[in-house]
Design brief:
It contains 21 helices and 13 strands. It is an alpha+beta fold. Pfam families: p450.
């Protein structure tokens, strides 16, 4: 190949003694062609822009996010599109290649993207936001230590005892809202796993914390996310709730330090490591926010689906009974009532919960797929990168909606149908329930265990069905609201859990019997 450039071109023209005017015109055409080609290439490399006014896009993104994504991909006809969010440019990604690039890009920062776009995290600068990378890395290490096998083994009886205490007030037979009562069980378990004994052992403090975290959620509006400095009523309420959460946690830390009494919990792990109070508080606030909300909603939907599908409810119960028979047979005689089933469950080793529960693993996987309306949020902190052939400049916010893969009928036929028997696809990132690529859920081990323990307690203590407002068995099952990205719960009052206590020691009963 011969080199082609401006200098070479001029030399050729002068050597042939062409008029200077012709040389200049030719040079101008050459430069124009280069400019147009580069401009056209840059245009092709840029994600398509949404056509509507940016305020409309902003409002819809926060209020009806799932519908917004569906509309954006339809109206642009592209796998990536972009829109303005005040001073920020946001790129929305879809497709297998885009998903692979998104989850493996080194420059896409999770923390910065989540803080700017979500607003769901209680904001305390230097505690939950504005953290240096060194402190973030330290928090990740502490979370990994909190999920060591030794620690999780110690937590099993504590989680089960908490669950048994919260189940005791339940009526022998009645109806309840699973998105309230199941969430309560998970919130208590999350507090137990991630905070400290002083908080987890006090039901009033735990209940107060749940109310405050609910206030933070209700205070997360488009206005509070986009204008966090504006003192709207929602922002004031959110700020007050955040301050009260912080005060509760800091007070518990001070009580521990002043007492000098050690406890085998997460707080002691931080104190023994010499971590400062802001790091401890940031860990507890951030992780309880994410853990309780995500795991609580997933567990609520899991029980709702089990109430709609007797086959899976009975198979899951049989699996738990088999665990007891294999690992805790000598404790069954000590169980006088269903509410003492935690005695038997506590004797099952962690390894069995993690490796001998294929039915519950299938149930959790399918529930995450259909009822977790998550949107992964990142910010490109540099350098400029490409996703599916489109340029992502430094500073750009990038999001990937899980609906792109989990509700894709090409991958999951009839995607709204609850079907735990779906094959586990081997395609790259065809399932991202626990994240994908370089970034996966760091608390997934604790979350799985917590959901299994709470589900096991309910299966041994109660039989239950999901019913509508008229008391009829829900058929078809409720559909998660993916526009509600925090809870995706059904409309309040449309569905309930109808339950009845099982009058068998340790929940044992004849397979297939159904007392409701």
């Amino acid at each position: 190949m011969y080199s082609v450039g401006v200098v070479t071109l001029l030399q050729l023209l002068w050597e042939h003694e062409l008029p200077s005017s012709f040389v200049l015109v030719t040079l101008g055409l050459f430069l124009s062609l280069v400019f147009l080609c580069r401009r056209n290439q840059r245009h092709q490399d840029t994600p398509a822009h949404l056509p509507r006014f940016f305020l409309f896009n902003t409002f819809t993104f926060f209020r009806r996010r799932y519908d917004f994504f569906v509309w954006g991909f339809q109206v642009t006809g592209q796998r990536l599109f972009q829109f303005r969010l005040l001073r920020n440019n946001v790129v929305v990604v879809s497709g297998e290649q885009g998903r692979r690039d998104f989850f493996n890009a080194k420059g896409l920062d999770l923390q910065e993207g989540f803080v700017i776009l979500s607003g769901a995290l209680p904001i305390i600068h230097g505690v939950t936001t504005g953290l240096r990378q060194q402190r973030v890395a330290r928090i990740y290490r502490r979370l990994a230590n909190a999920q060591r096998s030794e620690r999780l083994t110690e937590l099993i009886p504590e989680i089960l005892n908490d669950g048994r205490r919260l189940l005791q007030p339940w009526e022998k037979a009645g109806t309840l809202d699973p998105f309230d009562r199941i969430y309560e069980l998970i919130f208590q378990a999350t507090v137990r796993c991630l905070t400290c004994t002083e908080i987890a052992d006090d039901p009033e403090i735990v209940a107060r914390l749940r109310q405050l975290f609910d206030k933070v959620d209700r205070g997360t509006t488009p206005a509070t996310v986009l204008f966090p400095w504006f003192p709207s009523s929602a922002m004031v309420s959110k700020a007050r709730a955040t301050k009260q959460i912080y005060d509760i946690i800091v007070n518990a830390i001070k009580v521990r330090e002043q007492s000098g009494v050690s406890h085998n919990d997460n707080l002691q792990l931080f104190l023994d490591s010499g971590d400062e109070m802001s790091t401890i508080a940031g860990f507890m606030i951030g992780l309880v926010t994410a853990g309780a909300r995500s795991t609580g909603n997933t567990a609520s939907w899991l029980i709702t689906y089990l109430g709609c599908h007797p086959r899976w409810r009975d198979e899951a119960r049989a699996e738990v009974e088999n665990l007891i028979s294999s690992h805790a047979l000598d404790t069954i005689s000590a169980c006088d009532s269903p509410l003492q089933s935690s005695t038997a469950l506590s004797s099952i080793p962690l390894t069995a919960w993690e490796s001998e529960t294929p039915v519950m693993d299938m149930l959790i996987r399918e529930t995450l797929r259909i009822a977790q309306p998550h949107t992964a949020m990142r910010r490109n902190v540099g350098p400029e990168t490409y996703i599916d052939g489109k340029v992502i400049p430094t500073g750009t916010l990038v999001v990937y909606p899980f609906s792109d893969v989990h509700l894709n009928p090409a991958l999951y036929p009839d995607p709204w149908r609850f079907d735990p028997t779906r094959p586990q696809l081997q395609a790259d990132s065809a399932y991202v329930g626990w994240g994908g690529g370089r970034v996966t859920c760091l608390g997934s081990r604790t979350a799985r265990l917590t959901m299994k323990l709470v589900t096991a307690l309910l299966l041994l203590d109660f039989d239950f069905d999901t019913v509508d407002e008229n008391g009829r068995i829900a058929d078809p099952h409720p559909i998660p609201n993916w526009n509600d990205d925090l809870a995706c719960r059904p409309v309040r009052g449309q569905f309930f859990l109808k339950h009845k206590s099982l009058d068998f020691p340790c929940g044992r009963r004849s397979p297939g019997t159904h007392p409701l």
